[in-house]
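Service request form, structural biology core

Requester: graduate student, group of Dr. S.
Request type: structure prediction, single chain
Budget code: on file
Notes: please return the result as structure tokens.

Sequence provided:
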Amino acid sequence: MKILEKWITFAACITKKIIIAMKIKNIICLLLIAALRLNHVSAQTKVIAHRGYWDCDGSAQNSIASLQKAQELKIYGSEFDVWLTSDGVLVVNHDATIEGLKIEDTPYAQLKDLSLKNGEKLPTLEAYLQQGKKDKKTKLILELKPHSTKEKEDKATAAVVKMVAKAGVKKQTEYISFSLNICKEFVRLAPKAEVAYLNGDMTPQELKALKITGIDYNLAVLKKNKHWIEEAHKLKMTVNVWTVNAEEDMKEMIAAGVDFITTDKVLIAIKISTF
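Core staff response, request fulfilled:
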């Protein structure tokens, strides 16, 4: 009888230990699942609205409304284009000209009353940044366009950095440009900022040597040079791809591991990047 009691006690002890071990195993599994989910969220490709979210009613490319509508979508960021007028005013517009006037050769007084397709007047960068700071979670992806001379580019870059600081959006603003000179100036004047190069003709390693923090290349360039994505990541650089509007291209670039997709089709990109 005593032997039986001992065996029962022993079995109960073993069972208790097994139950505890199983509980610990379950906790470890749950922690691993949580870690994997967290990693998925952090690694998830993020969406940037190309010239704002303009593919909807009441909006237009590079309008303040397009920024506001992008902010409402709670995406990573909204991209926009900046020029410097002949008298030193920074304005937001994609093309070098508006209604036949070359922006960098025209004083602001001749441009300020020109309208965008949604009826807004040509926005100044100052007004645009004021809207931007209303939602600090939406990154402001500021593209400074190449100007006709290095002197003009340097002047524009310095003016942009000064205005961003004045508006209180330094941490919220990231810089991109097709001009290598402009990118180098941003690195010099705003060394803590994210700066990415657009032109697609340099390797990540070449840009890293210049302290540029990311590649921001056309879809065709990254399709041809997918190894640059891994190379950039090994160098702790970011990878953005533009302008990706087809679902299949979005899926391909997400599978390739890009960090950001810049697109005109923002709602489609949100849907695809979420899964």
